[in-house]
């Protein structure tokens, strides 16, 4: 991995309103992201055209799967989602494309925002199955769930289902922590069966 891929993204706080909680959250999320390189645009072009064979060739020839274009506003995964090239979406995810990438302002969207906005429930499901977060607000404060409510009822149902499962899981984890704090000598196996 090149040193440019290991560098964390820099944030120009002047682009954000620090009085808005979702802007502060976005800044903290963006600061943890790897700065993806800007390439020659060929991988994004192939994602736009839906040419999986040529996209694979680009990757074999050293293109970065997460290269960004249009001043950081798009990547190959987002374009494949937008164009409905779901076989390519699956391939990119299987190859480790960064599904948590937050594109540059003025949007600050994730791939899941794109799946919901561009009415792509198949991509939405693939992202959620791999752990995409449905409650990250973009620059305007819109979450992927909000985008889905406005654009795609199938995506809305999927995201809502995954958020509810996540909530249940978080509650179980919290209950587990409380049980351990109250009784640190308890056997973990006994605790887990009582959740």
From TrEMBL:
PANTHER family: ANKYRIN REPEAT DOMAIN-CONTAINING PROTEIN 39-RELATED, BRCA1-ASSOCIATED RING DOMAIN PROTEIN 1. This is Predicted protein. Transmembrane segments: none annotated. InterPro entries: Ankyrin_rpt (IPR002110), Ankyrin_rpt-contain_sf (IPR036770). Keywords: ANK repeat, Repeat. GO terms for biological process: protein K6-linked ubiquitination. ANK repeats lie at residues 72-104. Pfam families: Ank_4. It comes from Naegleria gruberi. The keyword Electron transport does not apply. GO terms for molecular function: ubiquitin-protein transferase activity.
